[in-house]
Specification:
Organism: Terribacillus halophilus
Helix content: over 70%
Oligomer: single chain
InterPro entries: ABC_BtuC-like, ABC_TroCD
Number of domains: 1
CATH class: Mainly Alpha
CATH architecture: Orthogonal Bundle
Strand content: under 5%
Order of helices and strands: HHHHHEEHHHHHHH
Keywords: Cell membrane, Membrane, Transmembrane, Transmembrane helix, Transport
Membrane topology: Multi-pass membrane protein
Protein name: Manganese/zinc/iron transport system permease protein
C-alpha cells in the first residue's frame, strides 16, 4: 500500500472505531466524558513510560486504559457525592491532564511525548513506524487501530441489547436484572481503549471530534440505533478522507483538517437533514 493509503486507512479506522463508540455516548448524553477521557489518558501514557521506560504501544495502551477507568470512577464518585456532573468532568480531566503535562516537562523532555504532539498528533509519520506481520510491513498504529476496531465491533455485537437498553432506559434495565453499572464501566473501558488507540496517531483534538461529531450527524438522520451506528461510521470515514485532501490542498495540519471536515459535515447535516434540519424548521415556521 502507498504512503497516502496507509494514512487514509489509519484515519478511517479512527473514524469507524470512535464513531461506533461515540453513538452510545451521545444517546446517554455523556459526550463531554469523551473529552475528559481523551485528555486525561495523557497522564496514563506518561505514567506508563515512566514505569516501563519504554514507548512500546502495549504499555501505552495499558496505562491509558487504567487512567480512563480511574477518570470515569472519579467523575462518577464526585457526582454521587453531590457535585454536578459537568463540574465533575471539568475538575477531573483538567487535573489529570495538567498532572500529565507537568510530568512530561519534568521527566520526559527528551522523548517525543510533548503537549503539541498530544493535542494534534502526527498522522503523517505513521507509515514510517512499521512492524512485520505475516511477511507484510504494516504501520504499528494502523495494526493497533485495526485490532481495536475489531474488538469494539465485537463488544458492540455481543452486548448490543444490553448497551441499547441501558442507554435508553437504565431504570427498566435495572428492574430486568441487568448489571447496569457493569455495562456502564464496560462502555467506559471501550471508550478509553478506543481513545488511546487513536491518541498517538491523531492527538486528543481529533479523538474528541471523531467520538462526538460523526455520531451527532447520524443522530440527526435516524431514530434507530443500528442505523445510527452505520451512519456514524460513514461520517467518520468521510471526515477522514475529506480532511486529508483538504490538508494537502491548504498545506495545514492533517488532524486539524479532519476535525474541521467533520464540523462542516455536521453543519450541512444540521441544515439539510430530512427530519431535524434547520431548513425544515424554517420552512414550517414560514408556512
Amino acid at each position: 500500500m502507498t504512503y497516502e493509503g496507509w494514512i487514509l486507512l489509519t484515519a478511517c479506522l479512527v473514524g469507524i472505531s470512535c464513531g461506533m463508540v461515540g453513538c452510545f455516548l451521545i444517546v446517554r448524553r455523556m459526550t463531554m466524558l469523551a473529552d475528559a477521557i481523551s485528555h486525561s489518558i495523557l497522564l496514563g501514557i506518561v505514567l506508563a513510560f515512566l514505569i516501563a521506560n519504554s514507548l512500546n504501544g502495549i504499555y501505552m495502551l495499558i496505562g491509558a486504559t487504567v487512567i480512563g477507568f480511574v477518570t470515569t470512577f472519579a467523575i462518577q464518585s464526585l457526582h454521587n457525592a453531590g457535585v454536578q456532573e459537568d463540574a465533575s468532568i471539568g475538575i477531573v480531566f483538567t487535573t489529570f491532564f495538567a498532572i500529565g503535562v507537568i510530568l512530561i516537562s519534568l521527566f520526559a523532555r527528551d522523548v517525543h511525548l510533548d503537549v503539541e504532539h498530544a493535542l494534534m498528533g502526527e498522522i503523517a509519520f505513521i507509515p514510517w513506524n512499521t512492524q512485520n506481520i505475516l511477511g507484510f510491513e504494516i504501520p504499528k498504529a494502523t495494526a493497533m487501530l485495526l485490532c481495536i476496531t475489531i474488538f469494539a465491533l465485537l463488544i458492540i455485537l455481543l452486548f448490543y441489547k444490553e448497551l441499547k437498553l441501558t442507554s435508553f432506559d437504565a431504570a427498566l434495565a435495572l428492574t430486568l436484572g441487568l448489571p447496569v453499572t457493569l455495562i456502564h464501566y464496560l462502555l467506559m473501558g471501550l471508550v478509553s481503549i478506543t481513545a488511546v488507540g487513536s491518541f498517538d496517531a491523531v492527538g486528543a483534538i481529533l479523538v474528541v471530534s471523531m467520538l462526538v461529531v460523526p455520531g451527532s450527524c447520524a443522530y440527526l438522520l435516524t431514530d434507530r440505533l443500528s442505523m445510527m451506528l452505520l451512519y456514524s461510521c460513514l461520517f467518520g470515514i468521510s471526515s477522514a478522507i475529506i480532511g486529508y485532501y483538504g490538508a494537502l490542498l491548504f498545506d495545514v495540519s492533517i488532524a486539524g483538517s479532519m476535525s474541521t471536515a467533520s464540523g462542516i459535515l455536521f453543519l450541512l447535516t444540521w441544515i439539510f437533514s430530512p427530519r431535524y434540519s434547520l431548513l425544515r424548521r424554517f420552512l414550517i415556521t414560514a408556512s
